[in-house]
Amino acid sequence: MDIIGTSALARPLIGISGRRLRGAAIGAPHGFADAPLEAYLSEYSTSVLRAGGLPVHLPMDAAPAELVERLDGVVIVGGDDVDPRRYGRTPGPFTPLIDPQRDEFEAGLIEAAIDGAVPLLGVCRGAQLLNVVRGGTLHPHLAHGEGESHGSYAYPRAHRVHEVRTAAGSVAHALYGETTRVNSFHHQAVDVPGTGIVVTGWAPDGIVEAIELEGLPVVGVQWHPEVFETDPVFGWLVDQASARTTLAVVSATQNVA
């Protein structure tokens, strides 16, 4: 059997995080309204598929490190606010419902991916949590209408609201060029970067829109690239995951030989 050939052709396995809901959210019948369920917006999985990866859901009850050990790449999706207590603040009047279990699970996924050099993409909340995991802080609330980059649900998901300027030499610059236009659905953003976090994209009002982790294939974006028909950041993630997998297969084959 050609071990290298067989493995190299396989789609890299990309894990996608989700959120814990109740059956009532999908109109479950009486008796199941309080049944736990997990969900993520399917545009994440279709974006991974289009880029050549094989998406899998990451159940919140599993151990993050055990999941990441089996994966070639990870996507931390968008959602509600990260618990402000994780970065030295307390919930304020604009803080929605907080999910400590999700914070803990996804923080574990991020830490395991970094420890194992597994390619990671954080989207919106995912980028914010990445920064918090590295010891950084967030702007607790960006009021709508007070800056070009602040989110509003008045527009369709894929409407590109404002421009993002990227840093030369960054992954973001290689993917999007000097500038790109993005959508905007957030009321928080990266404030003080965490350890090893490099800011690589800014909105016109200076709000952070893209971050990377020095020396590792880790990228966070504040916008929602999954809603576009194609976005190069998913291609980047799958390419990084494929390269890592191929390297591991070659190394294992050489050890066997």
From TrEMBL:
One Pfam assignment: Peptidase_C26
Record's keyword terms, sorted: Hydrolase
Single GO term (MF): hydrolase activity
Superkingdom in the source lineage: Bacteria
InterPro entries linked: Class_I_gatase-like, Peptidase_C26, PuuD-like
SUPFAM superfamilies attached to this UniProt entry: Class I glutamine amidotransferase-like
PANTHER family: GLUTAMINE AMIDOTRANSFERASE PB2B2.05-RELATED
Protein name: Gamma-glutamyl-gamma-aminobutyrate hydrolase family protein
Species annotation: Microbacterium luteolum (Aureobacterium luteolum)
